[in-house]
Structures are given as structure tokens and as C-alpha cells.
Amino acid sequence: VKLMIMKFIGFLIFILISFLGFHVLKRPVIGGSDSYYAALIGTWLRMKGLYISLYLAFLIAGIYVIVGFLFGKHERYKKIPLGPFLSLSTFIVWLFGNNILENIIFNHYKW
Known about the structure:
Helix content is 78%, strand content 0%. By secondary structure, the chain is mainly α. The chain starts with a helix and ends with a helix. It has helices at 2-25, 32-70, 83-96, 98-107.
């Protein structure tokens, strides 16, 4: 039952991002397969791993886009697949574990 809940939450997060992004920007912001991929990540890494993995995926994708803009490799509104960044972040979380990354990312900076 817990796995089904994690799968549903991972899927729901991306559906909400997609829905809000579409209504704000008037164009698709996340592909449909990313939602299914997030459901798989939620099933595999559980809730804490899912959140850390999504955080890292968007962080790595943002860095990639900024570097691409600086070197002239990307154009504005160009579609960039999120799947490779989800894969990389999921592998990082699986490799290092939830607790280590949570301490590095969230507890290092005292807000």
C-alpha cells in the first residue's frame, strides 16, 4: 500500500507542475512521460528520496541550461528533456543515500 501511495504522489507532483505551468505559460512545460518516471522514482526511492531526487534533477537541469545560455548552445523556449536529469539525480540519490544528501543539501544551509 505504501508503494502505491509513493507512486501516486510522484505522479501527482508532476501532473500539478504540468497543469500549473500550462496555465501560466500557455504551453506544455513538462512531458507526460516525466510523470510516469516520477511515479517510478517514488516507488523506488520512497518519499524522501523522491523529493531529493526531484530537487537535484531541477537543480542540475537549471545549471545545464544556464551553461548552455552562456556558451550559446541553447535558445530561449527550446525544449530540453528532463528524463536524463531525473535519471542522473535518481542514480545519485540511490548511490549516496537519502540521509547523506539530505544533510548536505538541507541541513548545511541554516535558513
